[in-house]
From TrEMBL:
Keywords: Membrane, Transmembrane, Transmembrane helix
BP GO annotations: regulation of DNA-templated transcription
Domain called EAL: residue spans: 618-873
Name under which the protein is recorded: Uncharacterized protein
Domain spans labelled PAS: 323-393
Listed transmembrane segments: 30-52, 64-87, 93-112, 119-140, 160-179, 188-209, 221-240, 252-273
Protein's UniProt keywords contain Signal: no
InterPro entries: Biofilm_reg_signaling (IPR052155), EAL_dom (IPR001633), EAL_sf (IPR035919), GGDEF_dom (IPR000160), Nucleotide_cyclase (IPR029787), PAC (IPR001610), PAS (IPR000014), PAS-assoc_C (IPR000700)
UniProt xrefs under PANTHER family: BIOFILM ARCHITECTURE MAINTENANCE PROTEIN MBAA, DIGUANYLATE CYCLASE DGCP
Positions of the PAC domain: 397-448
GGDEF domain: residues covered: 478-609
Amino acid sequence: MTRLAVASTLLLACAVVLYAVRNAVDLGPVGAGAAWGLGPLNFAVATTATYLAARRPDRVVRRFWTLLTATTVLSLAGTTLGALHLGGTAVTGSLYLCACLTLLVALLTLPVPGRSRAGWLSLGLDIGIVLVAFLLVVGFLMARGAGEAFLTGGGSTSTLLVVLLLSVAGVTAIAKVLLTGAANVAPAAVRVLGANALLCSVGGGLASLADSRPGVTGTQLLLPAAAFGYTVAAALDLRPSRVTEAQRPRRAFSVLPYAAIGIVDVLLVIAVWTGADGPSVHTLFTGSVVLTALVIVRQIIAFLENAHLLARLDAMLVEVGRHERRFRSLLRHSSDIITITDAEGRVVYASPGIEAVLRAAPEEVVGKAIGPRAHPDDRRVLRDQLRRVLDNPGRALMFQVRLGRPDGTWRWLEVVSTNLLHDPDVRGVVSNARDITDNRRYQDELAYQAVHDELTGLPNRTMFARATDAALSGGDPLRTAVALVDLDDFKSINDRLGHTVGDALLRAVGQRLVTGVRPTDIVARLGGDEFAVLLRDVEPERRMAHVQRIVDELSVPVNARGHDLLVRASVGVACGGPALDSGELLRRADVAMYTAKESGRGRCAEFDPAMDARAREHARLAADLSVAVERGEIHLRYQPIVALPSGDLAGLEALIRWNHPVRGPVSPAEFIPVAEKTGLIVGLGAWVLRESCRQAAAWIDRYGDRAPGKMSVNVSARQLIEPDFPATVEAALRESGLPAERLTVEITETAVFGGGPALEAVQAMRALGVRVALDDFGTGHSSLGLLRTCPVDVLKVDKSFVDGVPHSVEQEAIVTSVNEIGTAMRLQVIAEGVETATQAERLHVLGYRYAQGFHFDRPLTAQECEERVAGSPVPAAV
């Protein structure tokens, strides 16, 4: 495109030089041909330029330049015929006329920005004023040059039409750009096209006046100039656009209409001063009157439009005022703070919300830096965030910071800051701050609750595990230990005294543990009645001493809601080691704690690998025990209960035995704790109950009155709390046919100490007619008090009291008192564990009528029981 513009410029320059030379020297026919030939060449260049511009993707632009290409093609054809003297003036004039029409259509089809009806009317009047004035000027000039040829030296109607159309096209182009602004096409290109059309129309009017030689016409100069204009316009439109901030749409106002009127007035003055006369002068006068009328109409419309605009402006000012009042009200009553700070962090503006949040008036903050109001721990954060905001113009950044109040309290604020220093209307950093103190407090509470026990306020399992892992990884793991504390018989306290007392006891125990450890240690509640203590940086040889101090702290009675309770706890200890984590350490402590419980409770045990082996052994034992009944490995032995002093059979106590296919006989002391811990005791106990009832009923059927009078069956605490245990007893009696009064269920004191479901089960069995015996009497929590609350029929004195008879006066006093109490309460009393004849004789002297033990018989098989029953008299009542 640049090369085409250069070629068009050179051709125009040649035309100017040739025109000047021909006016000075007669070059003859060759010079005339050369002068006429420059026009077609330049229009050929212009056609190429407009064709290239028409290849744009924009549909409007493509249509516009396609019409201009048609214009240049028609002009090329006209200039070519004129240069060759073909077709005459009628043909060439028609071609020029068509070219002017396509130019006018192209300009009229260019889109303009939308406006109101008054705006369109004003625009039409402005264009009309300019067009009338311009036509008057051109007509006046052409009239002054009348009689001279315009195209080939002879006047014609086409000449006048061409001039008129060029005038209209030029005025349309200039008016579009100056009055409405250009769209799609470059404004500079439209200006060049308009100026080109006006130049041609004015040049056409002045051409005859400027010619000084015959055969030399201004058209020879105007045609290359017109082609040059098309080429330059296409080149300007194809330039890359450079839109800057300063390029803004201008208001729809131009001095062009007034300049046009001024030019007509100047011509009118010239005509008057020169004494001109004729139709042209009359037309000039008439046109000036028309222009005056158009201007008056234009001004009236302008006044009306201004009045309308002023009314709209007043309404807008009222609306702006209303919005401003609303905005000020929102700012005044908003709980948020809006501030504007400069690049150094000084406050330029602060909204009234700052008074409600920070108890500071806006004027107290303006002009001061916000940094000193921040919490000392947050000042660095505030500086870093301000630096980030300054480094990221236009980007909103969020952060949280604490700002102080005059009373010394702190408020958490969530701040969103945007750097608008580049905005001339703001020139600062705009921050919107929201008070989130309550939200932060709530979040902190949630975070605290997530890692703390709600009842005691101690760390929970999650936090304890984190602290343990940190201690193991952050120091010497061998100097880290975990003590697992489990309260013994806490359930009975909960059931007997209620959950309120139980919760108070847990809180008191938690505080007792905290006071019993070092400040560096951590006490946590893992759940239920289970606590854990993390001993950090403790010497291995001092580890158990620290744990013993914990046990000693718990040995002092604890007051829980007015109840002085003696708490016993089983403690398991595990020390850290390489590759151990909190989970493994707690597991080892748990294994050690259960070992302590099995050793008698209220004890402390340290983990060693043998405990793991024992735990695995118990697991295997439990697995074998779960199928022992189905495999026929479980059987019963029966220990006789005899009458004193004769030794006659009064009843039998069923004892479970297990003959393992690999281990051989397994002691009940070994597998009963495993059954109770795993829950297998429920199914196992139900089998013992059914088998005992079946055997007792079978002996009654076989031996009648000589059969054992009573069958006693031991029932564990775990069985008693089963909801359907009384139904199990009733079903065993019904299936076997054994009378209920011939069955005695033996329970321990600890099983019913807390009352609850266990005591309800005892009462339900009594309702069935089953007798209840209190086994191991004297070794529980409150044996004498239990006799008032638990309905029993038989007391079985524990072997530990019988062993002292007859060698210990104190022991004899105890067994004597128990017998007297039982007799007074109409209970049968049986002495357990009698191993010598001396014990049996002395017990009879002390008032005992029933006993059992190895002195009378070891546990017998069913066959051995039958042999003894066959040779015995009718059993004594028991």
